[in-house]
Fold these 4 entries.
Entry 1:
Amino acid sequence: MVVPALGNGAAAIPYIHGPWHRSHVLPGTFEIHMVAPRSSVSSGGRYLLVGAGAAGFLVSLRFLLVGAWPVLLFTILDLGALLVALHLFNRRPPRRERLRVNDSMVELIRTDGRGNEARVTLPAFWTRLEMSGRSEVDCDLWLVFRQQRHAIGQCVCAKERRRLAPRIRAALAGPPWQSSRPGRGIS
């Protein structure tokens, strides 16, 4: 996939998937992509579902012969509902978050499972990262600007949020040559 050319005549930048890859980011910009993990049903899993469905159908045939025909009806309804749920799950895109930090702004773009996009833009100079958690296995990341708090990394697990925190803090600190600005640079 290729990102379209910028309006100022700049050439298109090739897009390479992966949260740490920098080739698709403009110079001076830190960008990270966070995607909710998704697992699809493998071919072995499909065979297992077909086998379980066939076994359930054969067991319910015995009840049909005894005269308890609603058992067969509910077995077919249950298997149909399972197939519809798996189809809907595989059809929806995973939740995504994209955090972009440059010299002037911090931009958080969230995309939910329905494709709806929410965008939050904060000034980079005054935005900070807070990390909180009630235990060792819990971790929440917040972008804080004055009284605004925006949770980030909600589509990834707590362990991945802990790994992201130092990288995001470093991006918010800015390049080392900006150490004259308060709260920036290496101290």
Entry 2:
Amino acid sequence: MGLFDKSQKKTQENNGSSAEPTTFDLKVSNVEACKIDYTKSVEELTAFFDEQSKKIEQGDREYLNGEFMQLGYALDFIGFVQQVFRVTLDFEEGVVPAFESVLGAVSQGFQQKKLGQEILNDVAKKATGFFSVVIWKNIGGGFISSNIGNGVNIKGTNAFLYNRIGRRLQGDTASDMVSLYEALKKL
């Protein structure tokens, strides 16, 4: 799939040039266990997020981490989808086909030049947070960060969702979320 990483080094060919292949060092953090209780409803998680945000502003750093940031993006994505598409999302497994449909609609807007790259990047960031929470709630796993972005870790396999979602938003229908979710469930 091009999304999973079990190794730490990647080799990249130089587009047919005679130069030696370059080596890219992928630097991935240790897996951070999820600290947030994803058995809660969207409303409860929203209240939790708001409460913790106030505590962070007051100097409490307990939830000042990447996982908390992904939850914020996820909640923003839910609001965006409700406002633009009038579709209510939650974090249950059954939402994955609707999530794919939303990404398809955004992709179509981008391809028809109705949406610019900046909007597409913003949607990709928020959609990544959303899909991360769906995965943590229903499959499990932990949070990882790397020099290519954040991701989820499931049973030792790293999945960098932003890249996959970005490809989907740019029109790559083979980068769909339903097949990815099903593959992640099998890990």
Entry 3:
Amino acid sequence: MDSNIYEIVGLIRDIAFIICLPLICTFLFLTIKKINRLLGSLTRNSQNVENITDTIAGKFSGSMGLFSGIIKLFSLAGGFSRKKHRKGDN
């Protein structure tokens, strides 16, 4: 009687394993496929953002050169670019 119960439990375990293994593989395949689509979408979005920032930077590059020159002039005049003396410096 005991061996008959063990055989039935083993048979049920084997059937459950045979049924669950393809389901798990299908689930993993579909999940990987969705993640791959998401990564493709993120790649396209990052390329679009890069193109937009390049366009904006290209539009303002001429005026920013003048603006950065004015900032450098004021920082030199104000003494912001001088190094502070540290302990031990003469």
Entry 4:
Amino acid sequence: MSGNERASSRGRTMKSTVYFLLAAGILTLAASLVGISDSPPGIALLYGAGLMSVLAVVHRWKQPKRFGILFLGSVAAFFIMVIVHNFAEVGADRISHLPALAVVLSGLSVVGFVIAVIVCPMAGVVGALGWVATAGRQIRNGT
């Protein structure tokens, strides 16, 4: 592969990454406009945004090992983020007399919740499906 082909390929993947991130932003905005409180369409849009965020990172991957690590990491991250969310929420309640620190812990609680409920499941799905697809391709190609 020549230098020009490599640069062209890099430009296409960078463009794809930007498009995935743009789609994630648009879906997040749409979810906030529709509303996510007891609204299945809004929740579906938010899951779509999580999926686009994960795809922005992994769309160039071709090795099954990377997808396997993504899957296992998403399972581990789910449990870690649930713990972070719970400890931050309890901590924010306990130190409500220190408003600045309580606000920071409340924000950490929300971020932990969103990662645990939206990003980790989508990363797990992409990791599992990507592993199956890339491993199947390697088996078919005999590599």
